[in-house]
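User: Before I run my own analysis I want an independent prediction to cross-check against. Here's the chain; please return only the structure tokens and, at the end, one sentence I can use as a sanity check.
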Amino acid sequence: MAGRSKSVNGQMATGAAWTVLFMLIDRCMGLISTVILARLLVPEDFGLIALATSVIAILELLGAFGLDTALIQQPDAGRQQFDTVWTFNVLFGLGMGLVVACLAAPAAGFYGDPQLVSVMVVLGFGRAIQGFENVGVIAFRKEMAFDKEFKYLLTKRFATTVLVTIPLAFALRSYWALLAGTLAGTCIGVALSYALHPFRPRPSLAALGQLMTFSRWLFVTRLVEFFYSRMADLIVGRWAGTAALGSFTIAREVVRVPTRELAASVHRAVFPGYVKLADDRALLRRQYLKVTSILLLLILPAGIGLSLLAEPIVLILLGAKWKETVPLIQILSINGILAVLLSTVHYVNLAVGMSRATSLVLAAHPCISVPLMLWWVPSYAAQGAVAAMLTASVVTAPLNFQLLGRAIEFGRRDLLDILWRPGAGSLAMIGAVLAIKTYCAVLTSSLSGQIAYVVLVSAGGALVYAATILLLWWWWRGDPDSAEAWLLERAAKLAGVARKRSGTRFR
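Assistant: Structure tokens:
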């Protein structure tokens, strides 16, 4: 059992390293492209694309059965199951493309924007192409071959962003650059999926019934996720306009970097490991606590720091025309921390087969947030939407942890154990940041001063946070199984590798 734990733990750590590395590179490219595009385009351009993709996302729900997750969760999935998933994706993609084209004009009339017609037609064509993607790439995750998935995702991202979207933004200065980039990314992704994986799918629906047995509750989960992530776009676009929706979209994009993207990368890597440990709940519990502790140690200060420095960061990166995103980023950063904490629960519950209960608990979030959005958005625009999201996250948190307790005997003491040191470090960081901001506010009168201000405040806050965490960890005799110990061990290994390579280089 110990050998098995070490093997799976090693695979999870390696997978997490690859996915986090991709996240860092991907978000660096994403941040650079967002900054460039925000300078070249206007909020209405981003809002128009977000509105179209949200309308299409409604139709996507008809096929949101999570069959890829079913392939990973079922240990005996073979060619028959992979062929079935590919065939379903092809048929659904072609149907989606046709339906989206037919609904383009009615959707444009409902939202009062004729430009929505051409946008939806192009995106519908892209959705039809996407259905032909090689299902074999799912095996990268199933077999925990994350280095191969890294090559696939990074090549797709680089080609889409650097070779298509940014050059077109300079040339066109309109939403067509975003549209062309999306379509190009789809085509490149399909081509790469066949180039990088040898699996060649064949038409078959023989295993559809078997896969649906697991996936029917994942369909409910995807339905809930839509109401959580996309319903806000539709409500803001309808009652606050495309400019407000554009600001909301960019705010979410900025917040994703230090919170949800890092967590999503880790979850993508550890979920197959959770599945392998599902029959040993004690071992699964230990792995969950370690993964969640590491995430909180990194995400809690990042989200709080972004909230505190939202205004100068927006002015530096995006410019004054995006100043309306500042309060949105401040609220979304805090909600992002809660969302990450709750998402860690969902992956454990799915790994042990509690998809029905997970879907029902997830459904509580939109049941609270959507009515609040319908109430607040007409009066407070996008700020009403983010306030509704934060309220729903706070209210539904106890339900999520109660469900986790059923899966791995997780209690309030465990939650306190993984929260108290990052929480104490974050409080010390907040005090330091507020003190530094008081004495350095004079720097913000120019762009260079704003950059110096952000660097100084960020460095001071990070130093205080790290010192507090290490002091508390040392005071409590340096638990060797803690997140701090794991991070220090990895840092020492990286430093050793760097020293070895630098020594070799200069011989």
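Sanity check: Residues 271 and 347 are 6 Å apart (CA to CA).
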